[in-house]
Design goal:
3% of the residues lie in helices and 39% in strands. It is an all-beta fold. The chain has 2 domains: 65 residues; 64 residues, no CATH class. Strands 1, 2, 3, 4, 5, 6, 7, 8, 10 and 11 form a 10-stranded mixed β-sheet that branches. The chain has a two-stranded antiparallel sheet with strand order 9-12. Strand 3 and strand 4 form a beta hairpin. The protein is globular and about 35 Å long. The N and C termini lie far apart (34 Å).
């Protein structure tokens, strides 16, 4: 069962129907947009949450999980209990804690509550409020 905090007043900044269960970032006035390769450099650590619904037009309400238990799309093979970070397309992937904050280039945003293969929708514990450092190297 999903139990989560969401962003009140969040809305899509375009057609996000293909991004359900992927991470989004916050734009102005509580708008949310999908993370893509074209904006990953600017937004590598700025994912705001996981999109839980599929708004199909600009201005439609968007349910974005920022803390709690929710569903997410796996971007690779993940085992239960793994720490999670985001890939370049906003999918969750396994990550590791980074001891040195200065060398971290991503953030751990949660833990896997089950196993998943790439493309699977699975349950995670998510925390975008206080993410911890992760290094992709």
């Amino acid at each position: 069962m999903d139990q989560m905090l969401t962003i009140p007043g969040a809305h899509a900044t375009g057609d996000l129907s293909a991004l359900q269960y992927q991470a989004v970032y916050l734009t102005e006035d509580f708008g949310v947009a999908g993370i893509t390769n074209s904006n990953v450099a600017a937004f590598a650590q700025a994912g705001i949450g996981i999109l839980q619904d599929d708004p199909a037009a600009d201005g439609e309400p968007a349910s974005v999980a920022i803390l709690g238990i929710c569903r997410a799309e796996a971007g690779g093979s993940i085992t239960q209990g793994a720490y999670l970070t985001l890939d370049d397309d906003g999918k969750v992937v396994a990550g590791a804690l980074e001891a040195d904050l200065a060398s971290a280039d991503r953030a751990i945003i949660g833990r896997a509550l089950g196993d998943a293969a790439s493309g699977d929708i699975f349950t995670i514990a998510v925390n975008f409020i206080t993410p911890v450092p992760h290094d992709t190297e």
